[in-house]
């Protein structure tokens, strides 16, 4: 009996659950007899009892609401949503804004449906009344929701006057309605709700502020609102905001406004100043090759790029640009100090002077590391020969490069090259070409290196490089498993300045990183790019020798670090620590 009673109780609860679910489904499939209050409480229950996380649940419900508003809500979907908007605040602050957004955005696709046009026009009066209730704090909705209602129902000044004073409207009623809204705008300004204030000002053509309002918007970083208000006020205010942007060095926005409103004659230099600012930012990031492309062979911009290179002390780039674009005359015109710097560089790097002193003492040079050869590998035969040499090494440095991508939201470019170096030779592998030629051989060769327990592989921030390699060449298994990896960065956590800073600390000279953000997809790579890439790999080996207590270069004694416990391996997503 006890068993039977328990079973009966469970069946009853199960049936009740099914009945509630059926009621909900039935309500959503036919809204003709479902009140706005019932609909909103059912919607809240669906959200609360959903098993997904908040964002997926919200998206699913949004699609559901979009569908059910076609299921004959009375008297129509636009009126029905206004009724729901009065109910939403009763569901609690936690859900109010989300459900409000869900309802209003679901109306967007219905605006073009002919069968609901009458309801749309009828609902405008109710929506205007709701907006007035929000303004009067009778119905507690966020300001963002108020703006969405204005847009969704295309509320105009006449609709607001109709809600305030009735359908028989005269001109004086429109004036009074505007004054009513103006008072609300002033309240918004006092509470620093500038964006909402601008939306109301521009929608209802409320003339109530001068240029000090523009300054206040910009100072509070409401730039889009400032531009919207300036456009509403007319050409004079647009010119003022452009000049303000120029004064505070916001050249991109100034340039966009000049183009949008055809004001080039009034601001002839803005476009050039903006291009100069772009080049300067790229130069500051070390993206000289990208800056050169952006200059697009415009002589004035190329001259400015030469100037930036001279200011940065990047004389190699100065010489390169001068030769490529015949800009020696420009360098001569820069004045004695800069001209002498350029001449000194040319004299130092001339064939009559030993190449050993071409690089300043601040930076480490490959020749100081006695590197015998840099080998470029872009064919399968060369790959096989190189791997055979590397397999005989006990310790190698590993690094990789890819073309930088500075567009927001875009994916990083594919890894272009991978450098592997012993203390005597550096190999630079053209991954893009080798992968195109024979991905299977490439995978096999690099697995022999990456998964070898006989070779200690050194890197700097190696996990980042391996992640990028896996993302770039996901079909290859060679970058997903490895053995005997040592990330040098983890041995010196307090060191600043990246690999260059570490090299300065351990070997007495840093690395010249001006080529870091160059175009690594161009072929052929320049000799400078090859030397930069090779140095990043070979310096790891020399730093490691010092870490092991073999300071070969007579600098920075007393830097011994316990390193064996930092060696890691990964095979099929499982990690383990290997110790010698």
From TrEMBL:
Transmembrane segments: none annotated. GO terms for cellular component: cytoplasmic stress granule. GO terms for molecular function: 3'-5' exonuclease activity; nucleic acid binding. Residues 374-552 form the 3'-5' exonuclease domain. Pfam families: DNA_pol_A_exo1. Gene3D superfamilies: Ribonuclease H-like superfamily/Ribonuclease H. SMART domains: 35EXOc. GO terms for biological process: miRNA catabolic process; siRNA processing. InterPro entries: 3'-5'_exonuclease_dom (IPR002562), Exonuclease_MUT-7-like (IPR052408), RNaseH-like_sf (IPR012337), RNaseH_sf (IPR036397). This is 3'-5' exonuclease domain-containing protein. The lineage of its organism: Eukaryota, Viridiplantae, Streptophyta, Embryophyta, Tracheophyta.
